[in-house]
Every structure is written in C-alpha cells, then in structure tokens.
Amino acid sequence: MLGLEHDFRIVDTRATLDPDESSVATHGRDISPERLEREMLQAGVVRAVASPGRRPPGKSYLRANNAVARLSIDRPFVAFARLNGPRDPGDGPISAIRNLRAERDDHHARPDDVEQYSYDDRFHGFTLVPHVDGLPNEDVLRRLESADLPLIVHAGRKFPPDAVERELLDYDLPIVLASFGGYPLDAGLMNETLDLLDEYDRLHVDTSAVRYREVLERGVLEHPDRVVFGSGAPDVHPNVGVMEVLTLDVSEDLMRRVLAKNPARLIPALAEGADV
Fold it and tell me: Which of 15, 34, 40, 219 has the smallest number of Cβ neighbours within 10 A?
C-alpha cells in the first residue's frame, strides 16, 4: 500500500505487537515488529502505543509484556502492560454466581504487578480486554487508580458502555475506551459512550474501527479534547484509520488534536521529543 501524504504529525494509541510464536499462533497472524513499524511509517505515524496480543487461557501476560517492552526499544513503540483477572465482566445472574467464587490464580494480575509496571520506565500505561481476559480484582483496580497511568479498555458488545461505567468509571484515572466503546460496528453503543463523556471528565475514546463518519464527527465536534487516534494495527492497516480522520468534515485544528495533541497530552511518551 502506498504511503499517505499529509502534513500532520500522527501518533497512535492502539496497536498490537505479537512478541512470540505462542501469541502469533493464538492470534492467527505473524506481523513482525519491523513490518508493523514499516506500516506505521507508510501511514505517517511517528509513534504508537503497543501492547501484547491475546495469550492462551491460563497463561500470564508477564513474559508477553516484557517482550513488548524489549521490542519497543529503539523502535517508535510505547509499551503498555496488558492485565487480566478472574472476574467475569458480564452483568447477568451466571456472571454474578461466577464472581462469588472468583479466586485469583497464579496467571492473573496482582497489585504488586501493577506497582512494578508503574515504576518500570519501560511501561507507560495499561491495557484491559475484559471480554477476553476477565476483570482484575478490586485491589488491582485500586492500585491502577494510585498509579494514575492511562488505561486503555477494549469495550463493545461483549463489554458495553454500561458495564464500563459499572466496573471502572468510579476509579479516578484516565481511561480510553477503544473503538468508541462500540466494537464491532455498533453505532448505538458508540453514541452511548459519547454520552458518558459528558459525565466523566477523565474518560476518552479512540477512533479504531469506528467506521461511521457521523459518529466520528460527533465525537470530535462535541468532545474535541477527548478523542484520540487509534488505528487498531495490525488488524487494520494504519493507512485506513488515518484516512478516516483526514476525510472528516472538521477543521484542521480539530484533526491535529485527534491525531497528535490529545494523545500526547494523555500519554506524554507520545509527545514530540519525548525520551522513550
């Protein structure tokens, strides 16, 4: 795919880096760090948040997180640690029963893990994918609140905005809902998420896999400081995500906020000249 030509500085808040054969086998793709970096360059993306892909059930993210941090050295990647937990993110009676008996296993994230990642200068935030990895226990979430680092949450039909509000938004920390909280392609949930931005000052959304121009424009126009660019690479070539923003009917100033200013304010390691 040809590289895009534009005059914007672009940073990406959502990319996945599969660091080993196990992750590749689980996720069904083999995208090397070199190829991911090359695709980012083609799209004009100068720096990107990277976290591990899905691990097999019962496996810890510790090694995968450390691998992503190692692979980010001397590359334009900003490592985020992915966390898991024993709690079912659903809100039905079956989930409630499961959570009564939910005990943390050896492969689940613990408060000490969060503290270690927080003080490790290789990591700049955290990623949660509740419908895949479960929700951490309250003591882990409290430690995340104390760390006050950005938390990217994959939300959508399997973990909708009302579940995000119930489980996470009472904690005082910066949260980014990937895909406007409506993955996959659920415009209704995306609009529900935008309504939540009126109530929660530290809530943000990223643009990955939104695809609806009207929804994107509503988010940018109503909440110009809390929409950040996310490509969802390598599932989607970053060119696609960049073009979706560049073709919006909004001012260049608003585009610059989404593509660089907002992400850099939220995640200082994405700022121009940042030492990572």
Answer: 34
Residue 21 CB coordination number (10 Å): 9
Q: How confident is residue 1, by pLDDT bands cut at 50, 70 and 90?
A: very low
Residue 39, judged by CB atoms within 10 A of its CB (0-12, 13-18, 19+), counts as buried
Residue 100: pLDDT band (50, 70, 90) is low
Contact 263/8 with Cβ under 8 angstroms? no
Average pLDDT, the chain: 92
Q: Looking at the DSSP assignment, which residues form a beta bridge with residue 204?
A: 176
User: Can you spell out the DSSP letters for 147-192?
Assistant: HT--EEEEEETTB-HHHHHHHTTTS-S-EEEEEEEEETT-HHHHHH
Indicate the range of 193-202, 223-232, 266-275 predicted with least confidence.
266-275
